[in-house]
Amino acid sequence: MGMALAAYEAGEKSGDELVQYMDKAAYNLSHARPTTVAKMVQIVDGAMMLVRKHAKDGGCAKELVEPLREYAFSYINNNYLKYEKIGSYLADLIPKNGTILTQCFAETIIGTLIKECHKRNNDIKMICAETRPYFQGARLTASVAYDMGVDVSVITDNMPGFIMKEKNVDVFTSAADVITMDGYVVNKVGTFQIALAASYHNIPYFVTGTPNLRHETIDTVKIEYRDPE
After folding, report:
1. Can you say whether residue 34 is alpha, beta or left, with left for phi > 0 and alpha for psi between -120 and 50 degrees?
2. Which of 81, 147, 153 is CA-nearest to residue 114?
3. Residue 107 and residue 99: Cα distance in Å, rounded?
4. DSSP assignment of 119-148, as one string?
5. Cβ atoms of 18 and 55 closer than 8 Å
6. 104, 128, 157, 170: which is the annotated catalytic residue?
7. Count of other CB atoms within 10 angstroms of residue 158
8. CA torsion 73→222→199→181, rounded to 10°?
9. Which entry of 128, 157, 170, 177 is annotated as an active-site residue?
10. For residue 226, what are the CA distances in angstroms to 34, 154, 223?
11. Does residue 33 contact residue 44 with C-beta atoms inside 8 Å?
């Protein structure tokens, strides 16, 4: 959708000028987070195919807005179909009336998991680690669960090890920013400590995501550090 906005901004630009403008937008969007560059490049590459064809046919940027918007919606709808399957697979791993601990925000997967559990009359409980520094777990995961009628609690990021035992957590789950071809899972800071605590308590940790062919080894992943200034 950011590419559609870029085309709107580009207005009357056409030809090489249009391609250059959109190439820069694609780069900025896909490289905003160093850890997820490879995944985001795949998304903007599809949009750039539309841009190059449109420029070659002599069209201007504002005529691209609607096709790029349609491309974005199509991409999102295909993701929904995929996430529904993933949510169903994950629901198979949740015990009846089980308690789930989450880290960060697994986007549509959380919604499809809850929807699937509702269909199966599995009255799950959720515990959401807050996920600093941006509180995705507290602001996003927990609010989705609450809006869908789930008994949900938010805990601070230094509580999971104790809470796992105290509240009889059955499953720890998260999405992944990157899964490398040599088997590493890269996710929000703090996930590693929760995974260690889960291992200590013999609680299974299930990750939703797909291995990224552009990351053959963990050495190709750049962990994102914020500018200390």
Report:
1. alpha
2. 147
3. 19
4. HTT---EEEEE--TTTTHIIIIIHHHHHHT
5. yes
6. 104
7. 12
8. 70
9. 177
10. 10, 25, 10
11. no
Mark whether 117 is an active-site residue: no
Cβ(131)–Cβ(190) below 8 Å: yes
Known catalytic residue: 177? yes
pLDDT computed for residue 18 by the predictor:
95
Cα gap 109→190, rounded to integer Å? 20
| Dist. CA 8–CA 34, nearest whole Å | 26
Q: Which residues contact 134 (CB under 8 A, 6 or more apart)?
A: none
Distances 125 to 121, 168, 194 between C-alpha atoms, Å: 13, 11, 18
pLDDT at position 124, please? 97
Q: Of 159, 103, 158, 150, give the one whose Cα is nearest residue 131.
A: 103
Q: In the chain, count of helices (H) and strands (E)? A: 9, 7
Mean pLDDT rounded to a whole number for the chain? 94
pTM of the model: 0.83
Quote the pLDDT of residue 47: 95
Tokens for 17?
């000028």
How would residue 39 be classed by pLDDT, with cut points 50, 70 and 90? Answer: confident
Q: Report the distance separating Cα 153 and Cα 176, nearest Å.
A: 22
Taking only the tens place, the pLDDT of each residue in 124-133 is 999 999 999 8
Contact 124, 148 (CB under 8 A): no
